[in-house]
Amino acid sequence: MDGCSSSLTPMRMSLGENVVVTLFGESHGLAVGALIEGMPANNEINLEQLIEDMVSRRPGSGLASKRKETDDVEILSGVHKGKTTGMPILLLIRNKDVRSKDYSFLPYQPRPGHVDHPISVKSEGAADLRGGGSFSARLTAGLVAASSISRVAIPDDWKIDATVGALGGLEGDAGIALAEEARKAGDSLGSRVDLVISGLPVGLGEPWFDGIEPVLARALMAIPAARAVEFGRGVNAGLMRGSEHNDTWGEDMSLGEGADGALGGMASGAPIHVRVTFKPPSGISLPQETFNQVTGMIEELAIEGRHDPVIAPRARPVVEAVARLVLLDLGIQGGYIDE
């Protein structure tokens, strides 16, 4: 057929069943953002909270990438006189500090640890690879913006709190010092974000594949560079006996400290503890070797782009955002939140 020779299936980047958030854009394109469908009507938008949420995620300081983005959110539809209308909400975040020349070696020298080669093959060479394109953590700006808009629809007693758990396996100042050392060496470091969800009504969640843990795990693992998601006692549960692991119901049907926050996919009444482990960022300035498809040889590649030496500090608000969107979706599905 003229002008349509590809047989590829179009790709989508969507989260949720009742409130659907679809991400769009590329790291070095004109903009990134999100389309929210299914957001209940008549919810007032808190613009100050939106700004605060975006500031918590944006690059430009500390251990973050030195890319300077204001992350101003333009609300193009679905909001009238400060309230949601029930129609799709389009959020646009323009890219203002791109340096595409840093990626002139692509696609012929794919970066170690990056998606360059798989998506180039999948898209038959059509993908925008600059800065990771549509796979870049830059797109998490749309997730955070969508989550901020959703705050007013979630009951106040549903608490979602994420903290930086560890950098390179170390906590606090020791972890920060280790990450700074890696940055100065042109290298990167693995990290972890700890999430606590509390105040959920007992029974929130669905059985099997729509349970709190399965849905959260799927969504959290989609955050760029996530490599493991643990609930409750996590991998340590594999070292325990049932008599150690089982949580006793108290007289008022409460559970003790450290009990599983979800049973059979449904909230148990105890806080849900989640740990999300992130790999070291793949983009490092230390020279690495990769195959050059032009010369047909293994050659050294030094990346000049701006990258985070460690992910957890900027992933923390993203983890909160993903959890908030998942709980909104499950809350509507279970009838705990009015559509």
Verbal overview:
The protein has 339 residues and is an alpha+beta fold. It has one domain (14-244, 257-333): Chorismate synthase, AroC fold (4-Layer Sandwich), CATH 3.60.150. It contains 7 helices and 15 strands. It has helices at residues 47-57, 116-122, 140-150, 172-184, 212-221, 242-245, 312-333; strands at 14-15, 20-25, 31-37, 74-77, 79-80, 83-84, 89-94, 159-167, 191-198, 226-231, 262-263, 266-267, 272-278, 288-292, 297-301. Strand 5 (79-80) and strand 6 form a beta hairpin.
SSE layout and pairing:
Layout: E1 14-15, E2 20-25, E3 31-37, H1 47-57, E4 74-77, E5 79-80, E6 83-84, E7 89-94, H2 116-122, H3 140-150, E8 159-167, H4 172-184, E9 191-198, H5 212-221, E10 226-231, H6 242-245, E11 262-263, E12 266-267, E13 272-278, E14 288-292, E15 297-301, H7 312-333
Antiparallel strand pairs: 1-2, 2-3, 3-7, 4-7, 5-6, 8-9, 9-13, 10-13, 11-12, 14-15
CATH architecture annotation name: 4-Layer Sandwich
Helix content range? 10-25%
> What's the helix count?
7
Count of distinct strands: 15
CATH H-level superfamily title: Chorismate synthase AroC
Task: Pick out its properties.
globular; 4-stranded antiparallel sheet; alpha+beta; 339 residues; Chorismate synthase, AroC fold
Précis, in short:
The protein has a single domain, classed as 4-Layer Sandwich (Chorismate synthase, AroC fold), CATH 3.60.150. Helix content is 23%, strand content 22%.
